[in-house]
Amino acid sequence: MQGVKGRVLPFLAVFLTIFLMSSSGARAAEAVPQKPPELYVYDEAQVLSEGTKAGVIQKSGELQQKYGAQVVVYTAHSLPGESFDGRVAYLRSVMEAWDIGGGEDRGLILGLSVFDGDYEAVAGSGLSEEFTSEALKALLDEHLEPDFQAGSYDAGAQKFVEAAVQKADAFLAASPVESQPEGEGTQAAVSLAKKDESGMGPLLWVLLVLGAIVLVCVAVFFISGASSRKRAVHRHNPVITPSRTTVTRLQETRPAVQIKAGDRSTGVYRDRRPR
Length: 275
Description:
By secondary structure, the protein is of the alpha/beta class. It has two domains: about 1-30 and about 200-230; about 35-200, Diaminopimelate Epimerase, Chain A, domain 1 (Roll), CATH 3.10.310.50. The chain has eight helices and seven strands. It has a five-stranded mixed beta sheet with strand order 1-2-3-4-5, with helices on both faces. The protein has a two-stranded antiparallel sheet with strand order 6-7. Strand 3 (about 105-115) and strand 4 (about 120-125) form a beta hairpin. The chain is elongated and about 70 Å long.
């Protein structure tokens, strides 16, 4: 048993080390920056002009005053997450940390990942009825995609925000507060890179790696235990002694045959036994 523990403990130590490193790395990669003074614009990539920033702040501010809804533009050289699911999760964490959309979750965030030419739009549950995945895709394709492909990130972001604010205003004006979905955990999201929709986020990859390590540790444990048990078992081959039997020879069972020498013989009978 001590030998088995000695073989398993190193594997467990490696497993815990990888787990801690992966967890700390994932947390560092998903760190949300401090909420900007002007909530509606966070321009880390520095691709938005002052005029566009002022326009986003004005239009989104008016929407917030009327309905408590907010539209935010977030630009970065490369959005954290490395995949569609990961970046959507990151933008959702930004919405939660900055309280975009307030308590009724009436928020919409546009994330631009300039370095790798990608973008995502995520709507809170309070707007998801109007900003479905199909609706967001239509907005992105019509108002952002042409300028984004041409490198005119400023113009594309401005057009998208104007269209999104107008659409949200019309929806909220026709929808009383009571009709808004409450407590829904679903959020609509659309990405330019459709091939990433089936991709796995970094956290899922980490879980898969950790699961593989656990399986290896378990396999080593059982293989080692089986080997130890095999060496400890002594095979017992009992000697089977058949029961004693009485064997009667054929010669002993056959009766003696007495043959008369002849009619004329007067001699004695003789025994004629087969040999």
